[in-house]
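go over both lines:
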Amino acid sequence: MSIANVIGVPTGVITGPDVKKLFDYAKKHHFAIPAVNCTSSSTVNACLEAARDANSPIIVQVSNGGCQFYAGKGLKNTDQKAAILGAIAAGLHVRATAKHYGIPVVLHSDHCAKKLLGWFDGMVKADEEYYAKHGEPLYSSHMLDLSEESHKENIDICVHYLKRLTKVNGFLEMELGITGGEEDGVDNSNVDTSKFYTQPDEVWAVYEALAAVSPNFTIASAFGNVHGVYKPGNVKLQPENLGLAQKYIANKLGLPAGSQPVSFVFHGGSGSEKDKIQIALQNGVVKMNIDTDTQWAYWNGVRKFESKNRAFMQGQIGNPKGADKPNKKFYDPRAWVRKGEESFKERLHEAYTDLNSKGVLGGKAKL
């Protein structure tokens, strides 16, 4: 039976109560939705196609650098103007196409540190303007990453923005503890590793503050997460910590044993051990970020195409079939970009399998 029949979630970009329904259903049934960083219409389209073929929802997300790239590197990013423009352009593209793929899509912005709050403000303003016209925000949700600030400041700023987002049916994801490694210009490679593991009482402090405003939030609680891909054994994931936090908060709320009040987010999903992913799913993870692996997959598709057809891509005319033979069908971007998309899709199908979410919309997944 499909999600649409069970919980009434529509296709296309979903917001507010529909996002909450989807995450609650995922948590109850121990699956998660891949959240894929996109930098272009090509990567967005590959995400939507993969989700359709997997009969599953998708979370399309954009980073600050990805948004700037989406707008065009030729634009200056003074006061985050290019990044804001790129976020709006990406959002409108996803909204124009998502419903035609017949799947629910959560449209999300990724890590926003304190120094990037101008970008965040611009996106929320766009949500408010879109809401005034259409009755829902442009984006489903946004993420604040204030993990480098004090615990109190992190919570206070998140509460401030959740109040603002709540007025337009928006969702908030907040980061608690630090994700190691480096991504999109944020380098935590040399941070004290004790900060990679969030304690249950810290999660409770966030939950208590945000739940007083709205139920529409998720928590990216650190359990050893690291951005990027590393040799096995170099990353010490402890997803059991999420279960400890669930139990701690359930006790605080007087909920029955086994309750999972928190919807968690798994950052740094690329290269993670399969068994650790399964433990995370059992402990309330509903969203897993994947970026590094899909970047490689896209390039690998292009790389293989170029390697196979190199002799046909050294000039506009002239190849092994003749000195006067044209090569346009090989160097046409539609040829090699499509190979990147196909490889990108293959990696996403692997993610859907890892996250137990292939086919959750009902029907058989198309491999």
Residues 43 and 181 are 23 Å apart (CA to CA). Residues 333-354 form the longest helix (22 residues).
